[in-house]
Structures are given as C-alpha cells and as structure tokens.
Automatic annotation (TrEMBL):
UniProt KW Transport keyword: no
InterPro entries to which the protein is assigned, alphabetical: CheY-like_superfamily (IPR011006), NreC/VraR/RcsB-like_REC (IPR058245), Sig_transdc_resp-reg_C-effctor (IPR016032), Sig_transdc_resp-reg_receiver (IPR001789), Tscrpt_reg_LuxR_C (IPR000792), WalR-like (IPR039420)
Keywords: DNA-binding, Phosphoprotein, Transcription, Transcription regulation
GO biological process, one term: phosphorelay signal transduction system
Domain Response regulatory span(s) in chain numbering: 10-126
Modified residues (4-aspartylphosphate): 61
Taxonomic placement: Bacteria, Bacillati, Bacillota, Limnochordia, Limnochordales
Molecular function in Gene Ontology: DNA binding
Domain HTH luxR-type: 149-214
Organism of provenance: Limnochorda pilosa
UniProt key word Transcription regulation: yes
Protein name: LuxR family transcriptional regulator
Gene3D superfamilies: 3.40.50.2300
C-alpha cells in the first residue's frame, strides 16, 4: 500500500513508446494496491503531470525526446523530493546506471524484468527501498572493484565495510545478516553508522559514495 494510511501506491509512467505505456497500464491496473495516476511521453510532460498527480513512484525511461530521463529525474526530485523514481529502461551500461543513480533515482530496472518482479520493485521503492536488476548490481560492483586510485574511507570498520558491500550487492538487511552471521538489528545499527560516516542519507547514496571512494575488496564472507 501507499506511504500513508494504507492508500494505493500512486504510479506515474514516463516512456515515449505508447506500446510500453499500454503494456504497463494493463499489468499495473490489475494490482489491487497499485494505482496508475498518469502517463507521460517525455520529461517535459512528466514534470507538470507529477505536480498534478502526486505519484509515490515514477517509472522513468532514460531515452526520451528532448529532456532525457536523467535530467527529468533530477528536476522531478527537486520539485517533489518525497517521490521515488525507478528507472525502467532497455539500457544497462555502467555510465547510464551511475548517472541515473547520481541524479537521485531510487532504483534501476531493465525492461527484461519479470512482471512480478516489477510489481515487487514498485512496492519496494514506495517503502523506501532501492530495487536493482541483478545485471545492474553486477555492473556497480564491477565498477567498485576496479582500481580507482582513490583512498578508501578509513573511518569505516571492517564489519561496516562488509555490511556496505552487502548493500552494493543489492542484498536486503535480512540477507546481509544471514551472510555475516549477525542479527538483522545489528545490520541496521551498522548501516546507521555507515550512513553517518559517509555523509549519505540512504542505501543508494551509500553505494554511489562507495563507488566514488573506491571502497571494495573488504567484501562480506561468501
């Protein structure tokens, strides 16, 4: 359900292909806890429509006429900071992924995503999560593991580094806890410290900051 009072999650779809919008409309409308609040075919159209429809989650294509999805994401979040943008695109190149996340996108999915996973991702994003396609998570990790010449953040403890590695791998707190053999509450406590030390506000920003600092190699036990 939506963020407040158990209301349906309001969704805005931004894609320049009518057939894609129609397919998403058909599928989303049968979900009892989701409400398709609007559709836009461009970034320029999406901004005023978002003000009007007040979506909880925006499914944003990247390749749009005029303003691209990255810029549209940046402007939309400046306009409505509480909104959650999930990129839904055919393109998973590393540069596109990082640009979208740096613009503030909460998640990044490829259009090959299973429909049930897409619905789960919308719910996850509305609840404050950061859904990523597995391919996208792998690209972020590959970027992290390349030598960057940057100094790692010495302020993080070894355990905090392991928890951070779990976050960048797209694991939930429960999965990180199982991997490290610690309690889920302990993972949450470590994440609170990680966010504070890195000066970030959430999981997506922490993963991006980890990329910038070259924090890799301390990884959680396999």
């Amino acid at each position: 359900m939506g963020p407040d009072h158990g209301e349906p999650i309001r969704i805005l779809v931004v894609d320049d292909h009518a057939v894609v919008r129609q397919g998403l409309r058909t599928f989303l409308e049968i979900q009892p806890d989701l409400l398709l609040a609007g559709e836009a075919s461009s970034g320029e159209e999406a901004l005023p429509l978002a003000r009007l429809t007040l979506p909880d989650v925006v499914l944003m294509d990247l390749i749009l006429p005029g303003m691209d999805g990255v810029e549209a994401t940046r402007r939309l979040l400046a306009q409505q900071p509480g909104c959650r943008v999930v990129v839904l695109t055919s393109f998973g190149e590393e540069g596109r992924v990082l640009s979208a996340l740096e613009a503030g996108a909460a998640g990044y999915l490829l259009k090959t995503v299973d429909p049930d996973r897409l619905v789960a991702a919308v719910r996850e994003a509305a609840a404050g999560g950061s859904p990523l396609s597995p391919e996208v998570s792998r690209r972020i990790l590959a970027h992290m593991q390349r030598p960057t010449g940057l100094q790692p953040g010495a302020a993080l403890t070894s355990r905090e580094r392991q928890v951070l590695d779990g976050v960048t791998a797209g694991l939930s707190n429960k999965e990180i806890a199982a991997r490290l053999g610690i309690g889920e509450k302990t993972v949450k406590s470590h994440l609170t410290h990680v966010f504070a030390k890195m000066g970030v506000e959430g999981r997506t920003q922490a993963a991006l900051e980890a990329v910038r600092r070259g924090l890799a190699g301390g990884g959680a036990p396999r």
